[in-house]
């Protein structure tokens, strides 16, 4: 848990800011309540690799490959996930 | 031991192939029931193995056992309250790690567990080899490998169930997940709970402690009701939680989930071997097209088109084969009903025939439903549904709906020709409660098949020149209005309903099994038939009385009786010089012949497509049964022609007489009174009392709107169509009237069958009443605006159409801009701060 304070030093962005084709490693899932639960259910944990596959035809939601499987979430929900590029 | 009845439950995450395992074990014999007070349905089945009877319950698919969704609560409560003898945890071998999250939670709940490691074939294709023995050792659980879709591992799994049952598994003291720094607090809290429990807890205390640290609502309630000093426990938990958060910059809940993730990772490492590197799967390649910016929407449109073409158009063809069947049924019953007199049918006869007609009008949709449900099952099994949601979510979310609202709206008839019943049934998958209710409430606004006859009738009379334009108007205005309604509903009535995030798995594509598809199609159609039939009967009886009572006064009946005598006298005098005269002496003889002649024609029509042999057989049987009058039916020669001619005239005169009587009865009936009572209000929408009666009687089933109008605008001359009659008899009726009526029909409240489905899917009659009430108000308001507003502005029907369309579009656009509520989440304050820092 020691890397909690690495944030803010550059490489850290939120998942909604990433573009299709980019990838990174999840640093933290800041969502609580039901969003936090659903994200964890589908494998959004620190240390897990994420790939942004594509945006939907109307830009939102976004398809993400997380830990080997594909998940679609809205940008509103993706902004809770901090990613190290 | 051997005599104990075994209750086995199936649990697993969505897309684990749980239902294929269920079908594999039970062979498809099943019973679907709604869980009390919930909209989630649970399937139960049974099978016998090694001389033991085993009942099997298919629990809803869940990712976790938190308290956030109905499915999760039901799965959890079922395991705690029903304490099944064994829980079979179905896992997707190609995605072992993620499926282990649930396994850990089931273990902590103390459920005796057996693992069905499913879809090993899919795993192999993706280059993953799962070592079942290693998995069994690591989890200390029996593991059976299966491929549910191909029936592989069936007997092994059944053997495993019996063996697991006999060995009395007890997992309570198995701690697979190590919660690290939280472990000591969990032990502490468990000890505290042990001391303060009032009676021995139904659930393992370790599980309860973990759940309390996860701040689970249901666990907190459990403590309040079953433990002494719940205050103490609560204080302890919140103290530890805030301490933990300060120290680790994470909630215990997040930490607990993370430790499960680590444990799963460890087990995966030990049990899964990568045999080859598959970088781009077939699914990836398909998705590049199916989810792409340009092709995605086009393919979606193509699928919608195919869905309509195959089910509605193809299904409609098939209804041609249903008609003779249903008519045969009606004719079979008709034979046993008393005949009555020339003027009056006995109550029992008209009532029974009325009820059968109503039932038939619903049963005729069975072929459409069978095809529709089979196609939906295919789309579900293939895995297209989440892709559909992915493509359209943005659009629907603007209006408070959800990407998963797409299918229900398509089924309801986004453009023209759907059915609200399967539409409402399909809302079940929508994970977002608020969006689900909104979708249920707007599906009936779509253009179902039954609305179409009235549209075509009105368009052919009043918009004959702009047919295509009017058809385009009516088939697109409904979705525009429905989206606005959905937004308004979610901003008002549904404001406080919980909303959930849009987090959907996009599973790899699968080839569906024929068996699975057929079973689901039949199961859903049967559910519809069973639920709807009884209520339809009750409603048909009610409508019958409302349209027939109070009946016409004695004095008026006498007038009709006189007319009847005249008609009969004309007939008997015309045939008095033929040899048949002796057979038509009494009223009874004439009436009987009328009924038999009708029966003969009906049955012959039902055999229209049958073989010559069958038709001959029918003639023979008919001749035997009615030997006295059969020769008259096809009587030839001079006398025969005279009889036929006289009979035809009498039949027509009688039909007109009965229609007059029916019309007068309807005038004076409760429904007629209601129609007249409402006229002062509906006048502003341009509806006279006749239209009111037609609209009121359509409440039972919309198909009858045209039929009722048919009665009201009765035929004066032979061969006049209803369109001609309406035009002739309603001189004051303008295209603007028609437009108002069409818009009212577009917003028409759902039929009884749909209302029943609304009650089931939304979970209460309250919703059915809302679904019934708001469209009436809305439709009336819009129709009034169109008619009164249009009259005031001096608009023609077509101009009114354009103005209304423009206003509706602008309204929808503006409503789409209004910000809806956001999913509730106590956002970590640091997120925003952290972001600001990062941006500096």
TrEMBL record, chain A:
Q: What is the lineage of its organism?
A: unclassified sequences, metagenomes, ecological metagenomes
Cite the Pfam families for this sequence.
FeoA
The question of whether Iron is a record keyword is answered with yes
Question: Which molecular function terms from Gene Ontology are attached?
Answer: transition metal ion binding
Q: Which UniProt keywords apply?
A: Iron
Domain Ferrous iron transporter FeoA-like: residue ranges: 13-85
Protein name as it appears in the record: Ferrous iron transporter FeoA-like domain-containing protein
């Amino acid at each position: 848990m020691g890397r909690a304070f690495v944030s803010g030093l550059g490489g850290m962005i939120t998942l909604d800011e990433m573009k299709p084709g980019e990838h990174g490693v999840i640093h933290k899932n800041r969502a609580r309540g039901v969003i936090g639960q659903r994200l964890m259910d589908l494998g959004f944990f620190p240390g897990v690799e994420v790939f942004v596959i594509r945006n939907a035809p109307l830009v939102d939601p976004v398809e993400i490959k997380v830990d080997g499987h594909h998940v679609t979430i809205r940008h509103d929900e993706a902004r809770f996930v901090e990613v190290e590029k | 031991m051997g005599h104990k009845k075994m209750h086995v439950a199936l649990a697993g995450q969505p897309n684990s192939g749980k239902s294929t395992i269920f079908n594999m074990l039970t062979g498809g014999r099943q019973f679907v029931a709604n869980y009390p007070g919930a909209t989630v349905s649970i399937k139960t089945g049974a099978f016998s193995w090694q001389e033991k009877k085993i009942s099997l319950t298919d629990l809803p698919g869940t990712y976790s056992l938190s308290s956030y969704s109905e499915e999760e609560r039901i799965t959890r409560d079922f395991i705690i309250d029903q304490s099944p003898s064994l829980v079979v945890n179905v896992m997707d071998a190609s995605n072992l790690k993620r499926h282990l999250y649930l396994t850990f939670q089931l273990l902590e709940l103390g459920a005796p567990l057996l693992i069905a490691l499913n879809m090993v074939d899919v795993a192999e294709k993706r280059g993953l080899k799962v070592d079942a023995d290693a998995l069994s050792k690591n989890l200390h659980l029996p593991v059976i490998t299966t491929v549910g879709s191909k029936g592989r591992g069936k007997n092994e799994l059944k053997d495993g169930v019996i063996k697991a049952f006999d060995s009395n598994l007890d997992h309570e003291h198995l701690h697979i997940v190590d919660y690290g720094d939280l472990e000591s607090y969990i032990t502490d809290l468990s000890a505290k709970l042990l001391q303060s429990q009032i009676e021995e807890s139904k659930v393992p205390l370790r599980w309860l402690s973990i759940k309390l640290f996860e701040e689970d609502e249901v666990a907190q309630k459990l403590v309040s009701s079953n433990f002494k000093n719940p205050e103490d426990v609560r204080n302890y938990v919140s103290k530890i939680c805030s301490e933990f958060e300060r120290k680790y910059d994470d909630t215990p809940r997040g930490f607990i989930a993370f430790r499960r993730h680590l444990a799963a990772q460890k087990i995966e490492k030990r049990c899964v071997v990568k045999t080859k590197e598959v970088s781009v799967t077939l699914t990836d390649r398909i998705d590049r097209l199916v989810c792409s910016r340009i092709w995605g929407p086009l393919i979606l449109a193509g699928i919608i088109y195919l869905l309509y073409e195959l089910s509605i158009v193809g299904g409609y063809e098939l209804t041609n084969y249903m008609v003779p069947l249903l008519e045969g049924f009606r004719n079979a019953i008709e034979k046993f009903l008393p005949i009555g007199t020339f003027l009056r049918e006995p109550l029992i006869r008209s009532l029974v025939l009325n009820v059968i007609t109503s039932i038939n009008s619903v049963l005729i949709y069975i072929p459409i439903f069978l095809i529709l449900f089979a196609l939906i099952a295919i789309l579900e099994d293939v895995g297209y549904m989440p892709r559909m949601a992915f493509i359209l979510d943005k659009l629907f979310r603007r209006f408070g709906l959800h990407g998963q609202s797409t299918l229900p709206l398509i089924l309801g008839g986004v453009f023209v020709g759907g059915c609200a019943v399967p539409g409402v049934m399909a809302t079940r998958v929508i994970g977002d409660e608020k969006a689900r209710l909104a979708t249920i409430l707007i599906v009936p606004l779509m253009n179902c098949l039954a609305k179409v006859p009235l549209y075509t009738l009105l368009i052919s009379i009043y918009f004959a020149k702009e047919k295509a334009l009017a058809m385009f108007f009516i088939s697109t205005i409904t979705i525009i209005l429905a989206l606005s309604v959905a937004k308004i509903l979610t901003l008002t009535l549904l404001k406080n309903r919980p909303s959930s995030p849009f987090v959907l798995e996009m599973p790899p594509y699968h080839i569906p099994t024929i068996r699975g598809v057929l079973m689901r199609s039949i199961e859903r159609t049967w559910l519809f038939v069973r639920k709807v039939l009884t209520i339809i009967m009750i409603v048909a009886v009610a409508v019958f009385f409302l349209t027939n009572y109070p009946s016409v006064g004695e004095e008026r009946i006498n007038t009709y009786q006189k007319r009847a005598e005249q008609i009969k006298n004309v007939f008997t005098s015309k045939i008095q010089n033929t040899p048949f005269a002796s057979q038509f002496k009494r009223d009874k003889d004439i009436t009987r012949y009328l009924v038999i002649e009708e029966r003969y024609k009906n049955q012959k029509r039902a055999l229209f497509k049958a073989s010559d042999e069958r038709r001959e057989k029918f003639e023979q049987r008919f001749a035997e049964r009615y030997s006295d009058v059969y020769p008259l039916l096809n009587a030839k020669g001079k006398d025969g022609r005279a009889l036929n001619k006289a009979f035809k005239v009498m039949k027509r005169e009688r039909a007109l007489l009965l229609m007059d009587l029916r019309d007068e009865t309807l005038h004076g009936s409760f429904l007629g009174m209601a129609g007249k009572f409402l006229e002062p209000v509906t006048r502003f929408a341009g509806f006279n009392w006749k239209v009111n009666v037609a609209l009121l009687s359509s409440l039972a089933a919309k198909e009858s709107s045209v039929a009722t109008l048919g009665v009201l605008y009765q035929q004066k001359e032979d061969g006049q169509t209803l369109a001609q009659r309406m035009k002739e008899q309603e001189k004051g009726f303008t295209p603007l009237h028609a437009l108002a009526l069409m818009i009212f029909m577009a917003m028409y409240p759902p039929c009884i069958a749909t209302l029943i489905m609304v009650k089931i899917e939304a979970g209460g009659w309250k919703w059915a009443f809302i679904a019934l009430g708001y469209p009436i108000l809305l439709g009336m308001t819009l129709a009034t605006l169109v008619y009164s507003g249009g009259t005031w502005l001096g608009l023609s029907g077509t101009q009114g159409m354009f103005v209304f369309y423009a206003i509706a579009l602008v309204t929808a656009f503006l409503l789409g801009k209004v910000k809806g509520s956001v999913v509730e989440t106590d956002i970590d304050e640091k997120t925003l701060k952290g972001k600001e820092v990062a941006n500096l």
